[in-house]
Design a protein that fits this description.
Layout (H helix, E strand, L loop, with lengths): L3 E9 L8 H11 L3 E4 L3 E3 L9 E10 L3 H14 L14 E7 L4 E3 L2 E3 L8 H10 L12 H10 L5
Antiparallel strand pairs: 1-4, 1-5, 2-4, 3-4, 6-7
């Protein structure tokens, strides 16, 4: 069986059975098999209608699973943590997303790797750059550290 690597984004902005959002992220990291690197946990403002700040982190995970099986594993962890599907970008106990996969691109119904929006989300790129600055986006070859720098430098449109 071939082992591949995944970059997984973790986020929480609601208390759960493990404690506050930071505690939920820590518990989710412990529930992920094959973790080999973990970023610092950062606190970020909410995206969308939620009013609660998020605790965000990234992890590098080694696994023999293909992307659909990894996604199923992540969704099972979310359910165990009490995640319920609801309002998009609403409050959540835990959110686990596949951001990158060492196999490159993956497209199937319900799953796109790399994550379609990760390259414009500082709350994903900042933790990811802390543990995988030299990982290249398979779509255009840019390094994570460069993507992170680009998000930092963007200016709002007039």
């Amino acid at each position: 069986m071939t082992t591949t690597s995944y970059a997984i984004a973790l986020g929480s902005n609601r208390p759960g059975r493990h404690g506050g959002p930071r505690d939920e992220v820590i518990a989710a990291l412990a529930a992920l098999p094959g973790v080999r690197a973990v970023s610092p946990i950062i606190v970020t403002p909410p995206l969308g209608p939620s009013i609660r700040a998020f605790a965000n982190a990234a992890a590098l995970v080694d696994s023999p699973l293909d992307p659909p099986a990894m996604l199923a594993q992540l969704k099972a962890i979310e359910r165990r943590f009490g995640r319920r599907r609801g309002q998009r970008w609403g409050a959540r106990v835990i959110d686990l997303d596949i951001i990158l996969w060492s196999g490159g691109l993956w497209r199937s119904p319900g799953l796109a790797v790399p994550h379609p929006a990760y390259a414009v989300r500082d709350f994903v790129l900042e933790p990811l750059a802390a543990i995988a600055p030299d990982w290249r986006d398979p779509r255009d070859g840019r390094w994570i550290r460069h993507l992170r720098h680009g998000v930092d430098r963007r200016r709002p449109r007039a």
